[in-house]
Amino acid sequence: MLSNNKFDFYDKTTLKSYNLDVTMRYQLTMLDSLDPFTRIHSENVASITCRLCEYLHCDKNFTAYCTICAYLHDIGKMFIPPKILNKPEPLTDEEFQIMKTHTLIGYKMCMDDIRLRPYALRS
Question: 22-119 has which fold?
Answer without folding.
Answer: Hypothetical protein af1432 (1.10.3210)
